[in-house]
Every structure is written in C-alpha cells, then in structure tokens.
C-alpha cells in the first residue's frame, strides 16, 4: 500500500537468486513499513510485494548492476537496500533524516581499499590521480543508502558510474563510491550501525538493530532474536554461535581490580568490588576473576 509517491524503497536484483532475496527483504520491510517499493531487475516480474518493476537494459550480472544511476531514482527520497537485507522495525524515519542532507550511508567495517582505475603509470603503479583520496577518508558501505534527489545527487551518481566502469576489477563498488564521494560536494548523513548491521561482523550497537545486512545459515528470524533480545549498549561478535552478544557495561572483576590497583585509587576498591560482587554467585566470581 503506497504511503507517498515521493518516497520509496528501491532494490536492484539481476538473476533469480537475487530477485528471490529481494522479495524476502521487501516482505520484511512491509511488515513494519507502509511504503512504496520498486524493483529494478533484468526481467519483468509481477507479484504483490513490489509496486513497480523496471527492467535494466544491459545487465552486467556483477556489482556494477547495483551502482545506481540517476534514472533509477523513481522517488524524491529513496532508500536503497541490497537484496541481502532484513528489516526488523520501521525505517521511514530515514526520509525525515535526509531532509537536511543529500546522501545517507554508514561507515564500512574494515579499511577501505584504494580506488584503482585502468590509467597506469606502469604495470604496478596507479596514477597519482587514481589514489588521490586520503587514507583518513573512510570507505562507506553501499548496501543501505538514502538519497534526496537533486542535481547534485544525479551528478554524484553519474560520477560513481563512470569511476566504476574505469576500475580494474568489477567486484566491489565501494572504492569507486568512496572516490566519487570525496570528489563531490555532497552533504553526507552518517547512518548509525543500527541501520546497517553487517552480518556476521563485529559491531557496537546501542539500540535495536533495524536493518540486518548480510547472510547467516540460521536465518534472519533467529539472528534478529539473538541481537535484539536486549537493547542495552552491546557488542556483537563471532565468539559464539550464532553470534555472541556482550554488554558494554559488563566489566570483569579482574579488570576492575587491576585497573584500580594500577591507577592508585585503592581507597574506593573495597566498595566497588563489594558492589560488583553482589551481582554474582561465588562460582561466577571465581570464573570472572580468571578471565
């Protein structure tokens, strides 16, 4: 059911596998959001999930298909989602957040790979222009994006496409996105990790994870239950199955004792330890001291 023709969600999927993923992702969106959804694909499909299906003229069947072009923004405000996303909550507040910005996205986890195009000084060295983005300008993830359509955004998307077409390899589209962003005067809205949790990577979150992005063999429902069972500040990691959730407020007694001793604040040590120990049984205390 359409909420507003000027706002909507876009998926790009080429190939049956990704079309089916997009359907499942869109179904999760509609559980929590009354929003228009457009699928851009390599073939026309009809179902009750997508309000519109547009066909790509010349699909590449690689990550280049998900490099958005200006013509692929059917709305004034667009949320773009990768097919391997799962939405657990309302996310239309992104349309309000983008009002004062041009583009919203989250930081990529890990160090950005420098953009390299086909213009080489020799076989091993890229041109200075190709590597003109400083290391301190981080890489952004392109699996969850929100746009406010404008001439500035259309120019940015055109630049992103051109840079992607020039690069050496056609696997990742984030390096070309990063370079295009650095060379543009885009007003950027950094999205919190709760709007793009990269499953199954490590992450620090402080509220409900609204968009899970990635794949896991146990399925999205179990992952949602696992990471959102408690909404305190927490770290998600791969130290347990299917994921480990550790409270940021959870301090080991060993750390507390050594921190106090090394900081010289021994006067408050007894009271602090007593307060901490009251929360645990004797066996738990012994176990935590050994950590």
From TrEMBL:
<dbReference type="Pfam" id="PF01501">
    <property type="entry name" value="Glyco_transf_8"/>
</dbReference>
<keyword id="KW-0808">Transferase</keyword>
<protein>
    <submittedName>
        <fullName>Glycosyl transferase family 8</fullName>
    </submittedName>
</protein>
<dbReference type="InterPro" id="IPR029044">
    <property type="entry name" value="Nucleotide-diphossugar_trans"/>
</dbReference>
<dbReference type="InterPro" id="IPR002495">
    <property type="entry name" value="Glyco_trans_8"/>
</dbReference>
<dbReference type="GO" id="GO:0016757">
    <property type="term" value="F:glycosyltransferase activity"/>
</dbReference>
